[in-house]
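S., here's the first fold you wanted:
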Amino acid sequence: MSEQAASRRETLRRGAFAAGALAAGGLLRPALAAAQSPDDEDLRDFLVEAIALEQVTVLAYSTAADADRDSRATYEGFRDQEQAHANALRQAIDGLGFDAPDAPDSPTDTGVLDGVDGLDADAVKRLTDQLDALDKAKTPEQFLDLLTSLENEQLTYYAGQGPALDSSDLSTTSAEIGSCQAQHLVVLGQQAGHSPGAVASSVAATAAKAGSDTSP
């Protein structure tokens, strides 16, 4: 391993351990480390979409917390966890030497998704649609539906894309973040009136389908 590669590997590892993202059930073990592939663009592509999705979700939770006082404490807690995920992933992409997408400051701030290296057109459309839905959400029920949709999208992304990453540390962290999203979904499902068992079964099915859909 070259001195430059070793330095980059250590930079990523230190950044991950500094991030310390909180999961719903406790402390998320930060485990990001440097790429184990010479083609870092694959990791860049994974990271930019993950970061963009986390940042849209942060904005959604923040907006929902202002609109739904009864759920404010829960939404603010989940928002902080999503932000911690984004921070950890941003440190990883910084260590690889690529640019992360900026966080939107409002639902109409879709320009932050334009021209981001590694973020394909389909991802831009999905994220833009989620921001549009956030802009239109007015009632607690609409916010709850949107947050559930975002969490399901994240769970599908991490469960589907994480295992194939050519970085064991990044795959591990992807699984841990996905587990956090699953816990969020259980809480949101109960808030919508569903039983914990039914929600847990649905969440498990979503993760399993995501994994099977992307298996070779």
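And the second, which I think is the more interesting of the pair:
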Amino acid sequence: MNAAWLLATALVAVAALEPASLDQDEAAGPSSASPYPERDGIEARHPSEMIELAERLFATEDGKEEGLFWYYAGDLRWKGLVSCTDPFPTEEVRRMNARMNEVGGPIRAWSGENIDILLATFDKVEAWDKATSTRYAKGPNCEAEAQFLRGTIDQVRQYVIANRAEHEAMLKEKKAQEAAAPDGP
């Protein structure tokens, strides 16, 4: 896989502010009290299952943060699967990327307004990925690719830190424009 492509896609998917120290329960993913038992053993299944779980969770008012977690966990695992499988079926990549864009649109929009939650979630995703060695993808390159993808976190962290104030200013301006706009035609 092209290292520049992996880095570019990782920039969209993975960021962290500071490394998290998680206990075993946290490393296993969000609260085990989840009403979504299908997440049990999800680390060994296709990343699309994480994306579907993320969509269902995010659609609920109290599931936004857990949905965010599973979206980015699925995103990281998807990139790992694609990068360690050569050749990877082009049609599956097209379908999965389209589905991730569909599910991810509202999630990314919400997380852009909740940057502290987003950054904390990326810490949790990184810790979860390191702690769950069982992967859907198996092969000689998979662990090296996973390490590479996790290794981009420092670069993304710097990007997020460097651009946070600008992003927050744009959000504030957008909200002010929306508040000032008339409600009707």
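Why I say that: The helical segments are 3-13, 24-27, 47-58, 64-84, 90-112, 115-131, 142-151, 153-180. The first helix runs from residue 3 to 13.

Talk tomorrow,
H.
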